[in-house]
Each structure stands twice: as structure tokens, then as C-alpha cells.
Recover the amino acids of this structure.
């Protein structure tokens, strides 16, 4: 149950939110971090949990010592914390700890090659991060569900492709929320339809799960999500851990992608007997500190309340979009009413996205990200970049790359920070030539 921590105290939960940063003129100001979709700062509770646990750190499993038992207990309790956080079924779903969501997707892509071999179609979407695109390409026939000119998933195209490849679709793999536009996909509706056609579904929850409530739903429901992946570094828990949640019965089948210590029950020079999952898929000494950090972050997020986080970040999005619409020279990309997480992409006409990001950092201490955000096909479609121009850019690496500036919020960001962003953007758009000259662009 959420403790409903006051918004006034949100900022105090994060380390480094008030850290001074250096401006181009040599002065220091309180930094503003609007780059949370890439990586979030650590929660103080996470670092405290790491510090408190560190004296008991030991190798997990099979150790008879007191510290080994404590470490093993913490590690396994973290699985329960993760399952509970996303509404998974502890009797049917398992948590496999990995480095990040990218490794999790690669693990599923490898494992599914050994199962349902008569099905070789993967339905992905035109809005995916490269991590939910590239792992499938060398193993399956990948078909992409189209998006409209605003970057929204075309459900009619999804249905058409399911019908076209009826009986051959192994998996539908889709982002829960775009890391470019923030658009939220109707994953449970997508799941229900996929299951009607005998396909499984994987949801990349990297941009969704840290920002709003999410539930995998019961296996008795047609809307159940088969696989969920996400990364701790996007939910205020550094130390390099990620999560793969999927059906236990599937991971009981086939061989693991990584083999070695911890993955086996018995080995001879002629025989290997694999361990039961999830140990079967967690080769080597695990990242215990990463797991401890993730569990601590989840507890803090739940204490705030995921609905409270969502409401606060949505208010920041509305404020920013309204403010951008009132500025001249701003290029925005479909600010419709579709649900989104706290992500807003835009450009300033006449200023390259990379230069604008440098100006915001150098003049106001505001951190944003610019470029294509490991989603090149999606961004180039959003920007209406022609295939001919893409080929020219590939052939000439010196040519300016297309892209956008991305503002992405965390729960600790404040309305006053959005005001500051809008102030500096208003100044830049009015004195565009001055700033271009200042940053050696004219």
C-alpha cells in the first residue's frame, strides 16, 4: 500500500537532484535532469540498502556460512518483490535476473528458437528500440506492424498481419511505451489478440514499468502477458541488473544461451543435466548488489504509489506541451491526447538537435538527450526522412544526422524546472543567431 509521500518530498528521495553543474560561462547552477528515459539517478533508499547489506555480502546458494545464507535469502526474496510489483503469477511465472532488458530480449530470442519450430514469424513494430528489433533479425522472419504519421501503432495493420501469417506467428514483441514519443501501447489488447492466433507476447517494459502501474494479469485471462523485460537503471537502481519474467514451463525446455557454473545439476565429460529454472539461465556468480538495489527501488516506488508517480509526470507533460505550443519556432510531433509516459520530443527550427542540447546544458544546466535514441527507423519516419537521404547519410558520415531533442521526466522533477526550460527555449528562439554564433554554428 502506498504511503502517499508528499510531492514536496519527492526530490529528497533522489541522490544528486540538487547537484551544481558548470555552465559555459564558468558559473554553477543547480542542474536539471530531463534525461530520465536513458538512465535515472539513484534513490537514496537504494544506496542505503546497499550500504546496510554490504557487510553481509557473500556468494549465494550452497554456502553454509551465515553471510551466504543471508545473501541467498535476499536474492530469492527479490524475485518475490519483482513478481508482486508487476502482478505476475508466482506459481507459473519466474524471474530471471540479467544485466539489462537488452540481454533479456536476446535470451528469449535464443530460447524460442528451440520451441515451436514450425512457427518462424516474429511480429515486431515500427516503433521499437533497437534492443527489441535486432535480436530477432538473425533468427526469424521479422514483420513490422506499421505506425501512423504521429508514430502511433496501427492496430488494423496488426490484425491484418496476424491474419496473413495465421498459425505461423511465434511471438508478438512490442514496447510498452515508446522511448521516443512516450506513446503507451494497449499491451493487454495486443496480448488478447495475439493469444487468439496462438502467439505469445513479449512486452518491453523499460519505459513503462518505472512510471505507471503495470500488471501481467492471471494466466486464466486472455490478456495475460507472457514475457516482460525491464532494466533497473531506468528505475532509480544502478549497479547493472535487469529482469526477464516468463513462463516457468518454457524455460524448463531447451538449453540456456549462457552455460557454466550454477546452470547444472550434474556434469560428466559425456553428460550435462541442466538445473531447474531460473538457475538454469543465470550462469556464473550473479550480480547480488544489483538485485538488492532493484528490490529496494521497487519498495520505494510502491511507497510513493505508481498512480501518484503517473499523475505527477502527466502534469509535467501537459505543462511542457502547453508551453511549447506558445513558443514560436518549435517543431512538435503530434501532441494529441493518446496516453503517454513523461516523454516529449521536439526541435527548434534552424538549430540542429545536437546543438540545441548543448545550448540547454551550457546556458541553463539542463540535461536532455538528442538524436534517434536507438530507434532509427521510428525517428526517421517521424521526421519524414526520405530513403534517399538516409542512404546519403550512411554514405557520408560527416553529414548532419536527423534527430530530435527529448525531454523525459522522473517523479522527482518539478514544475519550476519545466518553467526554466521554457524560459531558456523562449530566449533561444528569439536570439537564434546569437546562440548559433556562440556555439560556432554560423
Amino acid at each position: 500500500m502506498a504511503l502517499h509521500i508528499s510531492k514536496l518530498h519527492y526530490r529528497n528521495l533522489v541522490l544528486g537532484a540538487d547537484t551544481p553543474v558548470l555552465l559555459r560561462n564558468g558559473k554553477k547552477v543547480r542542474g536539471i535532469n530531463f534525461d530520465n528515459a536513458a538512465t535515472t539517478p539513484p534513490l537514496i533508499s537504494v544506496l542505503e540498502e546497499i550500504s546496510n547489506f554490504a557487510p553481509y555480502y557473500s556468494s549465494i546458494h550452497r554456502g553454509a556460512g551465515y553471510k551466504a545464507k543471508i545473501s541467498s535469502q535476499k536474492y530469492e526474496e527479490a524475485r518475490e518483490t519483482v513478481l508482486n510489483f508487476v502482478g505476475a503469477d508466482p506459481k507459473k511465472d519466474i524471474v530471471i535476473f540479467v544485466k539489462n532488458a537488452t540481454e533479456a530480449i536476446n535470451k528469449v530470442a535464443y530460447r524460442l528458437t528451440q520451441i515451436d519450430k514450425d512457427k518462424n514469424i516474429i511480429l515486431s513494430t515500427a516503433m521499437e528500440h533497437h534492443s527489441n528489433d535486432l535480436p530477432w533479425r538473425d533468427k526469424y522472419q521479422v514483420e513490422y506492424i506499421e505506425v501512423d504519421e504521429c508514430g502511433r501503432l496501427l492496430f488494423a495493420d496488426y490484425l491484418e498481419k496476424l491474419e496473413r501469417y495465421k498459425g505461423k506467428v511465434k511471438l508478438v514483441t512490442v514496447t510498452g511505451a515508446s522511448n521516443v514519443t512516450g506513446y503507451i501501447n494497449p499491451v493487454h489488447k495486443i496480448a488478447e489478440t495475439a493469444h487468439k492466433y496462438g502467439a505469445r507476447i513479449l512486452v518491453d517494459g523499460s519505459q513503462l514499468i518505472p512510471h505507471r502501474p503495470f500488471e501481467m494479469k492471471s494466466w486464466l485471462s486472455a490478456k495475460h502477458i507472457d514475457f516482460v523485460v525491464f532494466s533497473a537503471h531506468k528505475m532509480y537502481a544502478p549497479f547493472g541488473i535487469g529482469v526477464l519474467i516468463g513462463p516457468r514451463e518454457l524455460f524448463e525446455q531447451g538449453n540456456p544461451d549462457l552455460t557454466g557454473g550454477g546452470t547444472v545439476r550434474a556434469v560428466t565429460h559425456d553428460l550435462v543435466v541442466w538445473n531447474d529454472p531460473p538457475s538454469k539461465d543465470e550462469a556464473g556468480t550473479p550480480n547480488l548488489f544489483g538485485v538488492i538495489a532493484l528490490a529496494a527501488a521497487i519498495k520505494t516506488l510502491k511507497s510513493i504509489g505508481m498512480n501518484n508517480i503517473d499523475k505527477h509526470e502527466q502534469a509535467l507533460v501537459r505543462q511542457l506541451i502547453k508551453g511549447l505550443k506558445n513558443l514560436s519556432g518549435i517543431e512538435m510531433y503530434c501532441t494529441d491526447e493518446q496516453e503517454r509516459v513523461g516523454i516529449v520530443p521536439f526541435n527548434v527550427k534552424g538549430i540542429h538537435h545536437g546543438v540545441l542540447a548543448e545550448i540547454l546544458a551550457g546556458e541553463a544546466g539542463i540535461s536532455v538527450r538528442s538524436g534517434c535514441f536507438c530507434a532509427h527507423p521510428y525517428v526517421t519516419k517521424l521526421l519524414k526522412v526520405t530513403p534517399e537521404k538516409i542512404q546519403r547519410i550512411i554514405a557520408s558520415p560527416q553529414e548532419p544526422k536527423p534527430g530530435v531533442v527529448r525531454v523525459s521526466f522522473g517523479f522527482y522533477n518539478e514544475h519550476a524546472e519545466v518553467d526554466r526550460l521554457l524560459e531558456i527555449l523562449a530566449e533561444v528562439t528569439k536570439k537564434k543567431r546569437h546562440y548559433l554564433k556562440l556555439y560556432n554554428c554560423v
